[in-house]
Amino acid sequence: MAFIELRDISKSVRAADDSELHILRGVNLRIEEGEHLSIVGRSGSGKSTLLNILGLLDAPTSGELLFDGKPTAALRLRARDRMRGAQIGFVFQQFNLLEGRTAAENVAMPLLYARDRTFWRRDALAREALTDVGLDHRLDSLPTRLSGGEQQRVAIARAIVRRPRVILADEPTGALDVETGARVMTLLADISKETGAALVTITHDENVAARADRMLRLDAGVLVPSSAGRGTDAAMDPGTGLHSDRSTATDLQLDLELDVDSTAPSTATATRARTTEATPAEGGST
Ligand SMILES: Nc1ncnc2c1ncn2[C@@H]1O[C@H](COP(=O)(O)OP(=O)(O)O)[C@@H](O)[C@H]1O
Ligand SMILES: [Mg+2]
Fold first, then answer.
1. Does residue 53 surpass a pLDDT of 90?
2. Within a domain: residue 3?
3. Ion ligand 2 nearby residues (CB, 5 A)
4. End-to-end Cα, the chain, rounded Å
5. H or E, element range at 108
6. Could you tell me the sign of the dihedral formed by the alpha carbons of 170, 17, 259, 11, in that order?
7. Which of 48, 89, 126, 185 is the most buried (most CB within 10 A)?
8. Whose Cα sits closest to atom 26 in ligand 1?
């Protein structure tokens, strides 16, 4: 059984001109325990909306989100909060650290909501998590004294301090230079593997997305398999071990481009060029 399952998820909102904006259209997705999955798509394709639904921060307009096979729609607010706190860790583009708090205090923050003995052990656990990300010498530093890469490592320590079953990362390298971003991705992948957490990375960056075991593409709210950027192994889906579905994925994608958005850029380069331009505007939605 998939740990998290999305069934035919759609999300629509009312736009400023009172028209209906369809952000997600019939998204189906199964996330297995411990897997590293990436979702790539240009700015505005619905990535953050999808991640917020996965993270129980937002509700879909239609469709079902299941955790361990159980629907989440009927959960009361407090049960959702508890489930999110215990099972999900978040990493955002802008780190989202509290400025007036030290690294250790930021990392201990999620444990203030823990209802077990980890609440009482929060200082020690925060120290351990910061050691795991290589920042044991920065426990008492304020975020403003840390580099971007270090701030993101603090955010990763905060994401893992409650030992979540899944880490959801929304453009985790978006505010970092390429080299620092690559190091942060290596850390995220290593640390999820070590703790057994699944990792879902959403990004507009093809190179970042290509590091995952499985890569999907979000295009105008439609989620399709992607084989781009993974070299000769691309035809194998590590989730199922199935080979040679590369042509299916490519055909499907071409069909979708024709059906849904004939103006969509069809090459990775065009996608990257467009999203890079649009990135600053995205800060507000992440
Ligand atoms: N609550 C909302 N109201 C109106 N439009 C929204 C809302 N949330 C997202 N959008 C729009 O939906 C599209 C997808 O947003 P988002 O999921 O943030 O995309 P991405 O993360 O891929 O850049 C964007 O055009 C965005 O402006
Ligand atoms: Mg976004």
1. yes
2. no
3. 47-48, 285-286
4. 30
5. helix 103-108
6. positive
7. 89
8. 44
Using a cut of 0.70, tell me whether the model's pTM lies above it: yes
Among 204, 278, 257, 265, CA closest to 48: 204
Closest ligand to residue 22's CA:
1
Give the domain range for residue 136: 34-60+75-285
Residue 170 CA, closest ligand 1 atom number: 21
Residues 6+ apart with CB under 8 A from 253: 217, 219, 224, 226
In-domain check, residue 69: no
Report how many domains make up the chain: 1
Average pLDDT of the segment spanning 236-255:
39
**Within-domain flag for 66:** no
With cut-offs at 50, 70 and 90, classify the pLDDT of residue 137: very high
**33 pLDDT higher than 80:** yes
The atom number, within ligand 1, closest to the CA of 52 reads: 17
Instruction: Answer yes or no: is the C-beta of 21 below 6 A from any ligand 1 atom.
Output: yes
Return the H-helix or E-strand segment holding 47: helix 47-54
User: Which atom, in ligand 1's list, is nearest to the CA of 16?
Assistant: 4
Looking up residue 196, the CATH number of its domain turns out to be 3.40.50.300
